[in-house]
Design goal:
heterodimer, A: 239 residues, mainly alpha, two-stranded antiparallel sheet, B: 59 residues, 75% helix
Chain lengths: 239, 59
């Protein structure tokens, strides 16, 4: 359950950011080029998962958990650190409306070059946006899925988020600025860090008291620690 | 070289000290575990301390 939730949340938040770029390209440079860029990026991401997935699953479980746990911990701490800084008011929040406005302005002024019947600017910006945001999702799907023995289940969680965000985005034809991105990023950072601690320690040869149930204890510890860090780091507000 | 740089930026990000501290804590856990010490208690507080110092640096 946590596996699917983690993949879903990580995918949702990254897809909100990718959607902003694709919407700007679609509205300003044409939907054909923007959607072709999305399709090309999805194929590239699927190829990455298909190529690296089997390679990871041949590792012995303990070695895999040490390797994947270490990667997840390093990667998760990056997410969590930024989320704590944002929650404490020490780093500016991601503003989808501002990103959308900037992308629209740049798309308006970019020269029109046709390649293969597509507007090259719209295609490449959509492709890069989806690919870069999607790589983080692919990383999470691969690491979580391989360690839990179910890459397809993790991929299903990520795919569900892509469908939900895509459907909502197409319906409203506007950036999803009301999605609480920082809260979701905070949650994903907590999940990545917790799984990273749990699996890397197991891979290092530790036996957690209570077995797999200890993961809930680690999760509670990371949530409480992060909330405490936000509280002690919060910038004072003067009236 | 550019690929290595991209992978580094992607996984480690802008605070490499956090990554180094996390890897060092995992290595210490590994050494203790292979010396018959079930050091499950080491990593969580080490991560908290690392995160605290990183947030303070970023503030």
């Amino acid at each position: 359950m946590l596996l699917v939730l983690s993949a879903f949340l990580a995918s949702a938040v990254e897809m909100v950011e990718a959607l902003t770029i694709v919407l700007a390209m679609g509205l300003e440079r044409g939907w054909q080029s923007a959607l072709a860029g999305v399709a090309a990026a999805v194929v590239a991401l699927a190829a990455v998962v298909a190529a690296l997935g089997p390679a990871l699953t041949v590792l012995p479980l303990r070695d895999l958990r040490l390797f994947v746990g270490t990667l997840l911990l390093v990667f998760g701490l990056q997410w969590l650190r930024k989320a704590i800084l944002r929650a404490a008011g020490l780093k500016s929040l991601h503003d989808e409306d501002a990103v959308f406005a900037r992308e629209l302005t740049e798309a308006r002024t970019a020269a029109r070059v046709e390649r293969g019947g597509l507007d090259w600017y719209g295609f490449t910006v959509s492709f890069k946006g989806v690919l870069l945001e999607g790589l983080e999702v692919a990383f999470i799907v691969l690491t979580f899925g391989s360690t839990q023995g179910s890459i397809p289940l993790a991929a299903a969680g990520a795919a569900a988020a892509i469908v939900v965000v895509g459907a909502v985005g197409l319906a409203v034809r506007a950036p999803l600025a009301r999605v609480p991105e920082n809260a979701i990023k905070f949650s994903v950072g907590v999940l990545l860090t917790s799984f990273g601690i749990f699996w890397s320690a197991e891979g290092a040869g530790v036996h957690w008291p209570g077995g797999d149930v200890a993961l809930l204890g680690v999760l509670a510890f990371v949530v409480a620690s992060s909330a405490l860090l936000v509280a002690v780091s919060r910038r004072p507000v003067y009236a | 070289m550019r690929l290595a740089r991209s992978v580094w930026d992607f996984v480690v990000g802008d605070d490499w000290i956090v990554a180094l501290a996390a890897v060092a804590a995992i290595a210490a856990t590994y050494v203790l575990a292979h010396d018959s010490v079930n050091a499950w208690w080491l990593l969580p507080p080490a991560v908290l301390a690392t995160l605290y110092l990183s947030v303070r640096r970023g503030a």
